[in-house]
Amino acid sequence: MGQRIGIFGGTFDPIHVGHLVAAVNARDALRLDRVILMVANIPWQKAETRGVSTADDRLALVEAAVGGVPGLAAGRLEIDRGGESYTADTLASMREAEPEDELFLIVGWDVAAELTSWERYEEIQALATLVVVNRPGSGRPGALEVDGWRVAEVTVPNLEISSTDLRARAAEGRPLDYLIPDAGVRCIGARGMYAGSG
Ligand code: ATP
Ligand code: MG
């Protein structure tokens, strides 16, 4: 029998507890067997606007952060595929590898508001149920009512944390503790990520 698999895509530059809390609560609410935190190789929405940490560094950070949390895993499919990362491709290859699995694409409110600008979003609609989680700083997008999406909404604790803020903190030498799991903070230090980068 197929499994219920959540895919939570992101740049994760760096991963933080906002991501992790959303992932475990979506897993619990929808009884998912696993949530894969899928690390974008080259996030096409972001690549041109700022220097993104290497995919290797971001993946190592996600692996460290998920540690032994049951039902969470770091995903490297997009990194292994190379090039720009498109969710439609990711879902299609997951469907091909495990045709029996049911796929759930998890996004926060900010991302849900932009879904129709995604590459080949009609393919995404056909391949996955959209799981929308609340995120402070963005409103609940009205676009959820647009036909074509199978949508599940999951309410998670509101954590006003962003990678953008964490990069600024790291660059200024302010603490990352408790905003990122310990193992992730150590990984950032060991790899010399974000120091002085702004
Ligand atoms: P950046 O500031 O660089 O954009 P980010 O914190 O938004 O980083 P992303 O990697 O862009 O993190 O986001 C990946 C996914 O996680 C998106 O679907 C986003 O909506 C969701 N997400 C990020 N932070 C939170 C949060 N604090 N609460 C709920 N969802 C979140
Ligand atoms: Mg973001």
Task: Give an overview in words.
The protein has eight helices and eight strands, in the order βαββαβαβαβααββαα. Strands 4-2-1-6-7-8 form a six-stranded parallel sheet, sandwiched between helices. A two-stranded parallel sheet has the order 3-5. The radius of gyration is 16 Å and the shape is globular. By secondary structure, the chain is α/β, with parallel strands linked by helices. Helix 1 (17-29) links the parallel strand 1 and strand 2 (34-39). Helix content is 36%, strand content 19%. It has a single domain, classed as HUPs (Rossmann fold), CATH 3.40.50.620. The termini are far apart. The chain has helices spanning 17-29, 55-66, 77-81, 87-97, 109-112, 121-127, 163-172, 182-191; strands spanning 4-10, 34-39, 42-43, 72-75, 84-85, 102-108, 129-133, 151-154. It binds adenosine-5'-triphosphate (ATP) and magnesium ion. Adenosine-5'-triphosphate binds next to helix 1, strand 6, helix 5 and helix 7.
Strand/helix succession: EHEEHEHEHEHHEEHH
Structural class by helix and strand composition: alpha/beta
Strand order of the largest sheet: 4-2-1-6-7-8
The tally of strands reads: 8
By CATH, the topology is: Rossmann fold
Q: Work out the radius of gyration.
A: 16 Å
Number of helices: 8
In CATH terms, what is the architecture? 3-Layer(aba) Sandwich
CATH level 4 superfamily: HUPs
Which segments are poorly predicted (pLDDT under 50) over 5 or more consecutive residues? none
Mean pLDDT: 93
